[in-house]
Amino acid sequence: MHDFISLDQVQLHRVAISRGLNGIGLAIVIPSIQSLVADLTDETNRGIAFGWLQVTGSMGSIIGGLFSVLLASTSFMGGIPGWRIDFHLVAFVCVIVGVLVRLFANDPRLDDGEAKAQIPRKSFCTEVKDMITKAKSVIKIPSFQIIVAQGVAGSFPWNALSFAPMWLELIGFSHKKVAFLWTLAL
Prior knowledge:
Elements: H1 2-5, H2 12-40, H3 46-71, E1 75-76, E2 80-81, H4 82-104, H5 113-118, H6 124-139, H7 142-161, H8 164-170, H9 175-185
Antiparallel strand pairs: 1-2
C-alpha cells in the first residue's frame, strides 16, 4: 500500500488508477445522496433540503481546501507527500459513504414487495442497449445540447481556478497564507 500511495512522478499509470478510484468514490456518493434527498422530502421542503445539501457541500469544500493546502507541505509514513494522502482520503471517505448509503438507505420506490416482483429482469447487454437508445434520444433535444454546452464552457474557469493554490505557492506565498486565502475565496 505504501508503494501505491507514494507514487513516483514517473509512474503515471498509478496516478491514473488513483484518480479513477477517486472519481468512482465521488460518482458513488453525489448522485445517490441527491436522489435520496429528492425522494425522501416532500415538494414543500425539497428546495430547503437541497439548499442545506449545497451548504454542507460548500463547507466541505472550504474545510477540505484548507486542510489539503496545509497538509501539502508535510510528509507521512516515510516521505509520502501530504497532498497524496488528501487525494486518497477523499476517495476513501466517498467509498465509505457510498457503502453506508447502499446498506442503510431505503429507496422509497422499492418499499413494497409487489413493485420488486413486477420489474422484469433484463440481461446486461439489453440494459446497455436500452440505455444507449435513451441517451441518444435525449442528446437529440436542442435545449439539452445548449445546457451541456453551457456546462462545459462554464466549467473551464472553475477547473482552472483549482490550480490557484499551487500558483500562489509558486509565486512565494506560504502554505498557511495560501490556505487562509483559499478558504476566504471559497
